[in-house]
Amino acid sequence: MSADPIVNISGLNKWYGEFHVLRDIDLEVTKGERIVICGPSGSGKSTLIRCINALEEFQEGEIVVDGIELGPNLKHVDAVRREVGMVFQSFNLFPHLTVLDNCTLAPIWVRNIPKKDAEETAMKFLERVKIPHQANKFPGQMSGGQQQRVAIARALTMNPKVMLFDEPTSALDPEMVKEVLDTMVDLAEEGMTMLVVTHEMGFAKEVANRVVFMDAGQIIEANTPSEFFATPQHARTKLFLSQILR
Amino acid sequence: MTDITASSFVREDLVAERPAPVKTAGFLGFVRTRLLNSPTNILLTILGLLLIWYTVIPTIKFLLVDAVWSGKDRTACLAENAGHPVGACWPFIQAKFPQLFYGFYPEAERWRVNLTFALGAVLLLPLLIPRLPAKGSNAGLFFFAFPAVAFFLLHGGGITGFGVSWVAGLLQLFADSISGVGEVLVGLSKASAAGPLLWAIGGAIALVGTLLHWVIFPLIWLRDQMQAAGQGLWLDFLITAVIVSVILFMLGGGARAGSRPLIASLATFAGIAAVIKLMGLDHGGMPIVDTRLWGGLLVTLVIAITGIVASLPIGIALALGRRSTIPLIRIFSITYIEFWRGVPLITVLFFATYMLPLFLPGNFTVDGLVRALIGVSLFTGAYQAENLRGGLAAVPRGQEEAASALGLSWWKTTSLIVLPQALRHVIPAIVNSFISLFKDTSLVSIVALFDLLGSLRASFADPVWTTPSTAFTGFAFIGIIYFIFCFGMSRYSLFVEHRLNAHRRN
Ligand SMILES: Nc1ncnc2c1ncn2[C@@H]1O[C@H](COP(=O)(O)OP(=O)(O)OP(=O)(O)O)[C@@H](O)[C@H]1O
Ligand SMILES: [Mg+2]
């Protein structure tokens, strides 16, 4: 692993009112690394990755993304968001825009790219997620798996250096999970830096460089997938794995 | 049979085609299956027919069969002269048509009203037809250029200054009012227990006003110089054009974004200059027609269209303000909305017309029609805000998050993602407000403005046309006019709704 951190989280603490949701999180992600974050429901996984692109504010600590510092007062939000793409559990495609317009909106309005160029780029990414011929459909006319792949393409059109995935397959029927995971595997193979919150342990074993286990707002254990699944150290990890792998 | 046999089956005789048992298609089928298929439905059908009999037939009789179609005065519409019971007295409408349409707008100048309506129609129609291109510049022309042109067409008059003068005037007014407040406070301090405190605050405010005067002094000096130089308008116009174009060029990203914003801006100013020249605004423009002479459908449409066009942005701003995280903006929006929703429109109009002049500084008068326009717009704006609030609440939070995650700013997220979806949800409610606004314009007749209804009532006073059916004819006629406009809006909104919701699966 090259010692070239692209995301560096240190001493991160966050409270929702009185509730201490993230506690002393330290996490360093090197360029090209694929990290899978897992843990029981309510452990703060979503909150953590949403802090990375400033969808959530935090009270203590520091996040540095590609050299851009994101302190508690969320300076440089725009700069960070331009480097970080995000894929949501519920897709969050814009229902009033066609698939193509979904993918060109941000390049046109954030990067000031001419419409024609933006459309060309968008088509390239739609091809990569294997739905170029649906470009003129509206999201509501597509299956969940297709929508999620459009969402991935939409995030990629901004040329992010880091991609965040928050349970991208949890809202999908089982037969669609695979098509989305395949897309993500492709992306990983191209060398994208990825932070993925997921319960798909098969994906973790196949793609991840590191698995991070969270519980009660803290990182309990982080290890390579082989070590993590074969010899979990912490009692909570063992319990979690025994539940999830049955 | 008790034992189960294997169920194999082979058809031996093919079934011949037979006619359907009861006719279900066509008109007779419809009558049989929808109107007369059960005792309740038979009863309802009979009731429906009775209702039609007692409403539609008399209406047709009144409007068409028994109507009098020609005549010079009331005698034509009297039963003894017509030879049959008299329904609608259409010659009355014919005689009063100019008054119903223009009010007391001078006859020689009525072409200006016609031209304005024609211009409005020419700009509005392509805007309403989705297939036609160039929606952006079309909307710009209709919403910004048209109101200005319409004002100078309908009202007349010219301009002596442009951007610089206007800005200078506005800033001067602002600075004056700040100084004024300060002086009032200082004046109060002499008679008050908290004298020194008031004196200090008043003095400070007055000082701010004076400072402001100094800051804007160069601008005012520039204006006065230009006015003194004679042809101030064109000099002012040129300076404004240059300043605005440069600002737009900078905001548009400078040379990096290409010269398109610059060209667009210069073209706009060239267009403005052409209009000024064409309408002779630099030489005093057309003869002024005081708004007190306006009336009839002209006033109704001016109020309705201004109200419709102005209330939506007000409503959007308030609805967004109500969701704002900044307490001051939120509180202001809520207070505003609740205030305007809590008072009847009549009160608003009365206040605007008779009370407002008492509050305004002596030399500061606002035209009566303009006061009504402002009142109606602010009033309807509050309702639109509430309509929109529902639409905004229906847009999932994830939409905003996805847009932010893509790097869109709050403004872009709101205008490209949130508002378009929110507006789609509430088209029916918004158009509903438009329709009630259109009909509520008739309330302005109580503040001495003669809209369609007011003009009609005024025309009843004419002894030449007093007949038993004059009033019915008049109300029927303007009822039809109101209906045409409102029904048109309603149908168009349905069309837009279907079109915009085409992306929804079901
Ligand atoms: N806006 C909020 N206000 C208060 N508490 C919140 C808020 N959002 C989340 N929480 C709490 O913070 C904790 C962590 O939430 P988070 O969504 O990060 O969990 P998660 O690990 O992603 O869970 P899941 O697997 O169910 O998605 C939860 O206990 C949740 O109840
Ligand atoms: Mg979650």
Spans where pLDDT lies below 50 across 5 or more residues of chain A: none
- Could you report the average pLDDT of chain A, rounded to the nearest whole number? 88
Structural class of chain A: alpha/beta
Main sheet characteristics of chain B? none
* CATH architecture annotation name of the largest domain in chain B: Orthogonal Bundle
Bound ions, cofactors and other small molecules, one mention each: adenosine-5'-triphosphate, magnesium ion
Number of helices of chain A: 9
What is the fold-level CATH name, i.e. the topology of chain A?
Answer: Rossmann fold
Order of helices and strands of chain B: HHHHHHHHHHHHHHHHHHH
* CATH superfamily label of chain A: P-loop containing nucleotide triphosphate hydrolases
| Rg measurement of chain A, Å | 18 Å
The tally of structural domains of chain A comes to: 1
As a percent range, the share of strand residues of chain A is 25-35%
Task: Tell how many strands the DSSP assignment of chain A holds.
Answer: 10
Number of domains of chain B: 4
Specify the helix fraction band of chain B: over 70%
Rounded mean pLDDT score of chain B: 84
Give the biggest sheet of chain A: 6 strands, mixed
Question: What's the layout of helices and strands?
Answer:
The complex is a heterodimer of chains A (246) and B (506).
Chain A: E1 5-16, E2 19-30, E3 34-38, H1 45-52, E4 60-65, E5 68-70, H2 77-83, E6 84-87, H3 99-110, H4 115-128, H5 144-156, E7 162-166, H6 174-189, E8 193-197, H7 201-207, E9 210-215, E10 218-223, H8 225-230, H9 235-245
Parallel strand pairs in A: 3-8, 3-9, 6-7, 7-8
Antiparallel strand pairs in A: 1-2, 1-4, 4-5, 9-10
Chain B: H1 26-35, H2 39-65, H3 79-82, H4 90-102, H5 110-128, H6 135-154, H7 163-189, H8 195-215, H9 217-228, H10 232-251, H11 260-278, H12 296-323, H13 327-342, H14 345-359, H15 368-393, H16 397-405, H17 410-440, H18 452-460, H19 470-500
The complex binds adenosine-5'-triphosphate and magnesium ion.
The site of magnesium ion has 4 residues of chain A, from α1.
